[in-house]
Recover the amino acids of this structure.
């Protein structure tokens, strides 16, 4: 997860329970930080803070994209870019071991 202040460094776990940006020194407290409800926040074995869009949210996003109107080249290219991004997010979540779940 990239630092919310400098946009460069990753956050690493600290003994205090906070997460420190390796680049600028910003401290992040998960108790006061906002994450999208569709995101899953984890700490890897190296102590780095990671976040993923849940597989369910990725698949829902893909379904929503399929409802975009057709016939407009610009909208079609935008939809394709969004679909590719959703697919990459889904792949990252599954590689991280998040359970696969489909929208109802």
């Amino acid at each position: 997860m990239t630092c919310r202040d400098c946009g460069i460094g990753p956050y690493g776990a600290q003994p205090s329970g906070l997460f420190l940006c390796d680049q600028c020194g910003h401290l992040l407290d998960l108790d006061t930080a906002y994450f999208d409800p569709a995101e899953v926040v984890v700490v890897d074995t190296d102590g780095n803070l990671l976040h993923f869009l849940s597989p369910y949210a990725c698949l829902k996003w893909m379904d929503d994209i399929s409802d975009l109107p057709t016939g407009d080249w610009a909208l079609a290219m935008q939809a394709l870019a969004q679909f590719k991004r959703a697919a990459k997010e889904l792949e990252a979540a599954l590689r991280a071991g998040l359970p696969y779940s489909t929208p109802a």
User: Anything to note?
Assistant: The helical segments are 55-66, 73-95. The chain has a mean pLDDT of 87. Residues 40 and 52 are 5 Å apart (CA to CA).
